[in-house]
Each structure stands twice: as structure tokens, then as C-alpha cells.
Amino acid sequence: MTKILIIGGVAGGATAAARLRRLNEKDEIIMFERDECISFANCGLPYYIGDVITDRNKLFVQTVPGMTKRFGLDIRNFSEVVAIDKANKKVTVKDIKKDELYEETFDKLIISTGAKPIRPRIEGIDEAKNVFVLRNIPDTDAIKTYITANNIKTATVIGGGFIGVEMAENLAETGVNVHLIEMMPQVLAPFDFEMAQIIHSELNLHGINLNLGDGLARFEAGGDAIVLQSGKRIETEMTILSIGVAPESTIAKNAGMALNPRGFIKTGDSFNVIDDKTGEENPDIYAIGDVIEVSDFVTGEKTSVPLAWGANRQGRLVADHIGGLKIGSSRIQGTAAVKVFDMTAAVTGKNEAYLKAAGIPYTAVHAHRANHASYYPGPSNIALKLLFDQESGRILGAQAVGKEGTDKRIDVIATAMKLNATVEDLADLELCYAPPYSSAKDPVNILGYIASNVRQGVYKVVHWNEIDDIIEKGGYLLDVRTPVEFSTGHIDGSVNIEVDDLRNRLSEINLPKDAPVYITCQVGLRGYIAAKILAGNGYTNLHNLSGGYSTYKTGNYMINKPITAARATEADDSQKLKTTAEITEIDVSGLQCPGPLMSMYKAVSAAKEGERVRIISTEAGFASDAENWCKTNGHTLVSLMSEGGRYIATIEKGKEQPHTECLAGAGAHRNATMVVFSGELDKVLASLIIAQGAVAQGKKVTMFFTFWGLNALRKPDKVKVNKNATEKMFGTMMPRGAGKLPLSNMNMLGMGKSMIEGIMKKKNVDDLPTMLKKAQEMGVRFIACTMSMDLMGIKPEELIDDIEYAGVASYIAANEDAGTTLFI
Q1: Which residues 6+ apart lie within 8 Å of 88 measured at CB?
Q2: Which residues pair with 520 in a beta bridge?
Q3: DSSP-derived secondary structure for 430-486
Q4: Helix 751-762 vs helix 681-696: crossing angle, to nearest 10
Q5: Which pTM does this prediction carry?
Q6: Which residues are the active-site residues?
Q7: Cα angle 132-137-142, degrees, rounded to a multiple of 5
Q8: In DSSP terms, which residues pair with 110 in a beta bridge?
Q9: Which residues have CB under 8 Å from 262's CB, separation 6+?
Q10: Which residues of the chain register pLDDT less than 70?
Q11: Contact, 256 vs 277, CB < 8 A?
């Protein structure tokens, strides 16, 4: 009989205990757990807080009495192991209830202490009584009780990892207004930026206020306010810290076991701990779960992956090893999925950011495909990304964001990776097909086909974050979508020749046959067809924009005010709609390019003036497309909302357009627009006075700040952002914010400015920063020109809140029905 002690009774520890008993009925197995509960569903905790899981008891996979009886274990909860004596093979245990210490000997010892949420030492945190972390059942109970007892309406989540995003969603689902703070420029670090942008859009759509690229600086007012590193202050009734985890490895360190620089326990292939001084493996002590470092499947490097699968798998493997069974090595791929409102985001392997930083050669391709046959009711789009070694075809990683079936596709690719399949094998996989579940060519097959085309040299790929620079340097970009799609949104500098007309219009491509031709469509498919047409006509240097305009648009998505908040006053009033004429309903769910846009265009074109059309789509970008299309065409967007994974737009047709193919706007000249080019106090002041006057006259005012005018929107305090030398020089030379702008005349080294500001104060005229704020409060729309920002090295983080970031197309759209247009 072997005496086996297990420290930690949740995922890894409980799995090991159950497996050990199944392997040997005679062994004495004692499991220590510091807290009350064992074997509970950590990953379900946010959903209990969000009332998705309503029965608290369902969080318990096993209970102390239940597991004791079934497996014949000695389970001691409220028992903390405080010391390990390797030489004498014994541990010191603290009985928390009795506050007593005792010793227990062992033949074999398993450490499964897990990891704990990081609670940083930060100004004001000790005085804050409304700051929580989420690790276990008591944490969950504390959060849920606090929300209920205090009728919480606003909350802040610090950290945009898996738990942070899940907490933000579940808090929002209970009616709480949520701010999500993340120091990185994106949420969900395992995903690449353009894939995370889809999640940003989904979070915005459901009312989450995103603060990205900004970290927590301090707590104020006893935790009722937080201040970010940018200086932004957020009022909040409670805060959830979700900024990462640290291994619970103190007892291992004190016992002389080797740890890596981040504090994770080092182990051998069979999970034996390693002596810190000798470097030898201890044959009788093991460590598993979130507390240890693991080997990465793709690179073989040591890393840490605090995910449930690894802990459970390691629990079984270590039990098998102790039981005398042969075990293989277990490398971690990091396969994971997260629900984000109506979306699922799933990932496996390494992302592009990691591969690039590690210097590992790779190629990336994108695909956008329906989750099942588009003619079967209820399809939705999945955005996929595949990373592979172009020489060998080895799969390095994959990401997907979509609705139903998204996790299934990543599971397939994760399995293929585990079996060392190549991208050609993805194309050859025979997967389940029936219209309700997939298409004859599954999205996974499509990724294989695209990657195979690239490996075979059919075309080269160019990516969303490269194409603007290429065009700026004189590159030729051919957009082969329809004119309707092109006019609704396109990449500046592109040339539109529809793919179906391409053969007859080749003469319009005035380039040598060996010159690079860059091609884009909506998602990449028509770009591939265009590439084959061009190749058949002698063109030899062809590049397809990976993922097409959809990926480009997503990658350039600007974080803004949540759509649900912006639409609150425009929400669809069912009683009002009942009194109007009959509404034509068009369900375009799952349609691929040109899909929803073309169907919306045709449906509204077929309607009569004043009639309403309701469009239902499952396409994530449909919300912004519907709004922009209506604005451009003079139609009224009656309502726009998200419901059950669908985006529903109700549109009232405006006057018939004389040139529908041009999509020209129609209006009553009720807009006023201004280009604010100047960065001088008196001129910007004049523009704001005019803007507020125009608002008072019932006009919708748009102010387009470009070049020196952007300085009026800069924050007064220095913001920490990454800049090159030229950008830093510009930033130093230019005035920081409205309060620093000089006069255009009689500035007199600042004396004139001081004089005019004194007169303004005496005459009760608001200073410029106050006037900017009041203009925003009145509804004046501020647009910062992104092209000018790029040229002048100004980053979004440096500008004031609640403004838009766009190009000249957005200004022109606002200018379509303007009765007043000024250049200042």
C-alpha cells in the first residue's frame, strides 16, 4: 500500500485522486484543500454571477461527502499545507477551523495548488471596499451578494483576458453598465489584432465601454472612482480585477524546488519536481496544473497555460505514472474558446504576434465562410485565420470568431495539428456535411484550399495592415466587387472593376504584365477568381488581400460609443410600428459577399417612398453598414438592435434617387459642416461659437479636425504612447490641447493670448476646453482625420474622449445635405 498526499482539491488534484483510486483500491489517498469546496467548475463562475447558471449547486462537480464515499478518499477541506519536508517525506498541515498544526507523512506527494488572481499593490486599493477578484466559490458569493445588496448599476473590469471578457458580458447581461480596462491595445491576447477587433465591435454593440491601451493608475474615493494611466477618471460602484494570475508556489519554493523566473514550478517529463540546487528530479514529489510550467506544442519552449484542460490531463497522467503505467509527453497547444455575447471566439496554437516576435517564419491567410449551407435557415458568418509554415505546410495556429459552429472548426484544426497534419490535409479532411451543419466544402476545407493556393504560388497574400502603405507608395489595388459595394465603403486609392466585367476591361489596367497587382474583394474569393483571370492573361505578379475588405474594415475598426447606448433613443417601438404601413421583412442571415448589403439595397430599391423594410442579418459588420448606407442614400434608419445573435435594422425609404448606382444622398440641407484646419485659439473659438449657434438653429453639426486643428483635440496631459523619433519631435513642438493654442494675430510670445483669455473670463465667455466640452454635450460631432493623425504622429490615446476617427469619406457623407460648409 502506498500513501499518497495531494495538495489542492480542484481540477488537477481531484482528477488525480479519482484516477489513483481507480488504479488501486488499496492505496491510502489523502487530499488537502485550503478552502471549503473541492472540484468545482471555475469556468462557470462568471455565468453564475450573470444568472445564466441559476442553481449554485450545479457549480459543484463533486462534493466532499460525495467524492469521499464514491472513491474512498480521505478529503480534508479547510486544511492548508504550509510546509514540505522533502528529506523526511512529510508535510505540515494547518487545520484552519481549529487553528492547529499537525504533520502527515507520505510515500508520494502531488502538488496541485493552482494559481491565484493578481491583486497589485496600487494606490488606493487598500481603502477600496468594492474591489473583487474571482477565483473560487467564496469570491463568487461575495461578488453576487455585493451586486444584489447594493443594487449595482455601474462596474469596471480591469483586464481583457478570458475571465475579464466573460465577467464584462455577464455583468452587462444583468443590466450593469460596464467599463472594461485593458492595458494592451486589444482584448484576448491569444488572438491577433484584426480578429480581436471583431470582439471589440461585439462588446461595443452590447454596451461595453472599452478602454484599451490604458492601464489602472490608482483608486480614488474609497474605490468609487478609478484613474487610468492616461488620466481618465471613471466613476464606478465596484471593480473586478482580472489582470492575470500568479502561481501558488510558495511552499514549493520554501522546500527547495526549482522555479522558473515567473514562479512556476519546473518539472520533468513525468511531472516530478526538480531540486533547486542539484537539478535532479525528485522521484516521489510531483506537481501539476496551473502552478507548473509546461512545454508548448508548436515551439517546444517552456511556458505557462492556465487552462482547465491541461490541469485535468496532467492529473490523469501523473496518476498513471504513480500507478506504474507508461505515459507520453504532454505538450500544450493552448486551445480555448470564449463566449462574447452572441459571438464565440476560439483559438489554438500560436498567434501571429508571437511567431513574429519569436522570429519563426510563417504565412497567414484569412477566410470568411457561413457556418452551414447559406440556403438553410439561420446561417451566420465565421471569420477564420490560419498560420502555417509555407515551406513544410505545418500548421502553427488558428483563430476563429463567429457564432454557432465556430468552436467546432478550431477543434478540427487543433486535432489536425496534434496529428502533425499539413494545410493540404485540411483541404482533404472529410467532415460531416448536411445543410443544417456545414457546406460541402467546410470552412476548414476552405482554409486548406487558400493555404494550398499560396504554397503553390497561385498568388501571394497581402494583409490588411500592409495595403495602405503599399497604395501610398504607388501600388495598384484592384477592387473587384460590385459598384454598390465599392461606393458603400472601399480602400482609398483602389480602382473598381467588377470581377464579372474584368475580362472586357483589362485595357484599363495600365501596368506592365510583371508589375505587382494587388486585388481585393469582400472576403477574398472573388479576388482569387480575378487573380486566375489576370494570370490567364499574362499577369505574373499577383497579390490577393487576405480576407478582403471585410478583414481590412474590421482591422481598422475604431472603438467608439457602444451602439446600444447610441441607439437607445432610436430603439424599435413595436406599438408605433403597428400603426404604420405593412413592413417588408427580409432575412439575409448568413449570406456571403455581397450578401446583406446587396439584399438590403434591392429590398429598399423595390419599396416605395415612406415604406419600411426590416433587414435581419447575422453578419457582425451589418450594424455599421446599415447605418452608413442609409446616411449615404437618404433613407431613414428607424431602428437598429441586436437580438438573439441577429442584427435587425428597420429602414424607411426616402425619396427615389436619380442615380441609384452613385448612391448619392438626399436631404433637406439641415446639416452644417466645418473643416477645422487651423490650430489657433481665436479661429477654433470662432468655429465652436458658430457650431453651437448652428445646433441651436436645429442643424446637425459635424466638425472635421485635420492637420493643425487636431491640436485642439489633444489632451492637456502627456500620454504615454509608442512613437518614433519624428513623431516625438512633432509631439513636442505642437501645442498640447485647446488650452495651449496660440493666437493667430498679436500673440506677442503668449502675452496676447493671456490678455484675450482674461477678457473672455471677465465677459463670462467660456475658455476653449470648456467650449469644446459644451459643444460635444450639445451633440456636435467631432471627427479626427486619421490621415492627418498618421502624418503628424498623433495617436488616438492622445485625443479627448467621445470623438470619432475617420477619413475624408465620413466628412463628405456628412456634407451631402449640408446647408452650411466652412473651412477654418
Answers
A1: 105
A2: 479
A3: -----TTT--SS-HHHHHHHHHHHHHTTS-EEE-TTTHHHHHHTT-EEEE-S-HHHH
A4: 30
A5: 0.75
A6: 43
A7: 40
A8: 6, 286
A9: 247, 293, 304
A10: 560-581, 590-595, 598, 619-621, 623-624, 628, 632, 642-645, 656-670, 696-698, 747-750, 762-764, 809, 816-817
A11: yes
